[in-house]
Amino acid sequence: MTDLTVEVYDTTLRDGAQQEGMNLSVADKMAIAPLLDELGVGVIEGGWPGAVPKDTEFFALAGKELTFRHAQLAAFGMTRRAGATAAADPQVRALLDSEAPIITLVCKADIRHAERALRVSPDENLAMIEETFAFLTGEGRRVIMDAEHFFDGYRHDAEYSLRTLQAAVAGGADVLCLCDTNGGMLPDDVSEIVAAVGQRLDTPLGMHAHNDSGCAVANSMAAVAAGATHVQGCVNGYGERTGNADLVAVVANLEIKRGIVALKGDGLVESTRIAHAISEITNIAPFARQPYVGASAFAHKAGLHASAIRVDPDLYQHTQPEKVGNGLRMLVSDMAGRASIELKGKELGFDLAGQNELLGRVTDRVKHAEAAGYTFDAADASFELLLRSELGENPAFWDVETWRVRVASKPGDPTDADAEAVVKMRAGGERMVAVGEGNGPVNALDHALRTALAGVYPEIEEFELTDFKVRIMEASHGTDAVTRVLITTVHQETGELWRTVGVGPNVIEASWEALADSLVYGLLKAGIDRR
Amino acid sequence: MTDLTVEVYDTTLRDGAQQEGMNLSVADKMAIAPLLDELGVGVIEGGWPGAVPKDTEFFALAGKELTFRHAQLAAFGMTRRAGATAAADPQVRALLDSEAPIITLVCKADIRHAERALRVSPDENLAMIEETFAFLTGEGRRVIMDAEHFFDGYRHDAEYSLRTLQAAVAGGADVLCLCDTNGGMLPDDVSEIVAAVGQRLDTPLGMHAHNDSGCAVANSMAAVAAGATHVQGCVNGYGERTGNADLVAVVANLEIKRGIVALKGDGLVESTRIAHAISEITNIAPFARQPYVGASAFAHKAGLHASAIRVDPDLYQHTQPEKVGNGLRMLVSDMAGRASIELKGKELGFDLAGQNELLGRVTDRVKHAEAAGYTFDAADASFELLLRSELGENPAFWDVETWRVRVASKPGDPTDADAEAVVKMRAGGERMVAVGEGNGPVNALDHALRTALAGVYPEIEEFELTDFKVRIMEASHGTDAVTRVLITTVHQETGELWRTVGVGPNVIEASWEALADSLVYGLLKAGIDRR
């Protein structure tokens, strides 16, 4: 370990959300922020209050409801408008109103962008930077500069780009974060320019890298080696175009390979779980080959050297996967699981300590189920049902005889279709036959199931299906692909939320399982007995 | 441009195939190799003949059937066994028998791996290296060294690792490729070690990087900056664990950012199409954020600066996307398309030159369809049907009245299901009602459709559905997710293969479209008229 410390600044909620296909709600941001704090980042950039209404709402809600152990919130915004004062600029005022202790100001650090995009004179741009910093630091906030397009600007007109940094310093900037906004730099370029800037200025430097050349992680490392003490990035490398620097990879490289203290606390050992949990919230499929935390990151195809890997794994891996909460994978049976099952049970209120035979059975069922495509990380309710069934605590609320779904083209339009489902079951001592319609087969099944049960278990009318995700799991090792369905259900009165998972050869069978389990779990939690 | 030239060595077919979930058939390899040649790589590593039976078959078939414009084939193998001669080692002989002009020998370059994995003495390992090289170069082959675990070995015992390189040089090695087999190096490490080796040896050096630290591309660039003149990698960054260096990103960085000649020919401008075509063969979903060639690589979320981007795109992108055959994306209507539609038409035998009004209509339909989830790159047959329909050349072989699919749980087992489909249509002047069964809804629909048509169009019995891929397209901008189905059909007699695409709100509607189009296309190609 060296004495060097680097500040980790996460921008998943702001720059990461620029990714194509990502659309974070306020609730998503409220769910992601505590995970970032658990990871141990120093700063969580929450969005652009004032410019984006849901970001204004996020800061208001986060200020009331979230308490962080490690992180501080940062509000992102722009320098003041041309020709006005910072104090009178509503966009600048909104940054203060957000009550974030840190404000990050994006500044044009490339003379061409000042002139052509902002359409202001080079001197006015400098005045906008200095005055906005001076106003906000005068209000007692810590203010960070995002020097946009700095590297491209420096190559075009180094002196002007340096003057933008000096303007921020004159206004009291705490960190000058140099941004490779277009992502085209290579590590050599970054090293050279960061070192040159460091010789001219004493204010701490930061790095904000994008991955357009495939070098975002390396560029972040190069900047730190050249003197930067602040790095920005996004979990899972989210971001516009090719994404921002993958924050976990940068942090793991800094801590594991260079002995630099980056995270607060010891969240690195939880980073695989945290990265996956965030991908379930963003509903962006995790990338199996992602460094450190990917499902394949420490997966070895069993080959000639299988026994050597098992005896001497350190010869075949660049670091110990446990350091990032990941695991060496070769055979499913190689993955130990009892301890984590015991912990998971404890979380859910089941004391399983010492019940080795039971833990063994549950571990085996989880292993087999996950190999078949289930994922309990994202479906705690399904895990609890599995655990309860091994404990003999799962009441059979009903018995299903048969179900069927019909999808048919609409009369007169063979290119458009309607769906209808029929469920036959016994509940409360009676036989029920119910039909449901829908815009697709799953929707129709859900309606039929609820109609059949509403008489005996009216409580289910409170359970609302709020999210439905389908993923085709790639076939591996010559087996057929399977479909996985994740369903989120919310209790309309209590607000309690639960997730269930189903897996099957097609979306209909997988959905049936997840739907039925969501109702069973809801009834159990409501304390209902079999009727 | 500098005078520097770097040899590009592709190992997609060997090391790339180690990726979890990838399983390349001989036919897959035969389809990928010409695409690599078109890209312009210098060497295509085809596999390990002798050790892997389908690789032996690939070399035999490729020698007969493939002619490359640029590339040469390399066979990968090991040094001779301990305690025997190279000439008598069947594994070494199989490398010669492959008739590949280049042979790449993996050698233990880390003393710990020689002793613990290979279980031979350090001196025997050196003898195995030198003698195997001497034997194969004596047979007139160009032989390349893959110095496995070189970087880890060098850090542990630099002198021994250097002696393994010297042994290869003594045996006549043409290139010493230094492998970061565990993928844990950072660019600083690579620069230092490659430069140090270059000071001790005159033989050209190469770099083989893995992405475990997220630095494979940067490490390849660092090695070239430090003197390496040969780089290995895989298209799309395929490979075990986190993958190998992404070959296209490395090549684009070398050529565009450093002015180094890497590819033979001008295949870089085709690299986006080639990378995507390879991902269709491997059936590994392309990664949208992949540098240079990803679908999102040059996609900008329209925001405050949309107009500035349009006027001055070079201020907002690190390079021109056209250099890699990709395109700036902001609004669908921003993507020019007439020229490519004209070219695509020409490929399919339609002369559309000068037909501007028609080209405009087809371009619009393609744009709208791709925005809705279709992909014509992977479904030429569907594109041809679209083009023919604009040309008024699509005969209506049949009229569909209605279709329906039923999925129902099996009697006695509500967790298992069966599928049945009914199709009602008119063909050959008659009304047909046909039923089909299957293990899933799509399979049942396919059977019903064929049964209905077999009397009037018996030719369709020759069309075999050989592949069926489903992808859920992520919702973007608040719209619902859609399902895309790609179907591959083969004519059993002629061997002709075609692909069709269908898109719909669920897998059943999407499949219906792709199935029906596959039959229409097959009939058209067979020269059948409407009956």
Q: Would you write up a description of this structure?
A:
The structure is a homodimer of 531-residue chains. By secondary structure, the first copy, chain A, is α/β, with parallel strands linked by helices. Chain A has 17 helices and 14 strands. The model of chain A is unreliable at 331-336 and 475-479 (pLDDT under 50). In chain A, α9 crosses α10. Among the domains of chain A are: 7-260, TIM Barrel, CATH 3.20.20; 398-456, Double Stranded RNA Binding Domain, CATH 3.30.160. The longest helix of chain A has 19 residues, at 507-525. The termini of chain A are far apart. In chain A, the strands form three sheets. Chain A has an eight-stranded parallel beta barrel, surrounded by nine helices. The interface between A and B is large, with 102 and 103 residues. Chains A, B: Pfam families: HCS_D2, HMGL-like, LeuA_dimer. Chains A, B: Keywords: Amino-acid biosynthesis, Branched-chain amino acid biosynthesis, Isoleucine biosynthesis, Transferase. Chains A, B: Pathway: Amino-acid biosynthesis; L-isoleucine biosynthesis; 2-oxobutanoate from pyruvate: step 1/3.
Q: What are the defining features of this structure?
A:
EC 2.3.3.21 (chains A, B); TIM Barrel; 3-stranded antiparallel β-sheet; 531 residues; branched-chain amino acid biosynthesis (chains A, B); homodimer; Citramalate synthase (chains A, B); alpha/beta; 14 strands; Double Stranded RNA Binding Domain; transferase (chains A, B)
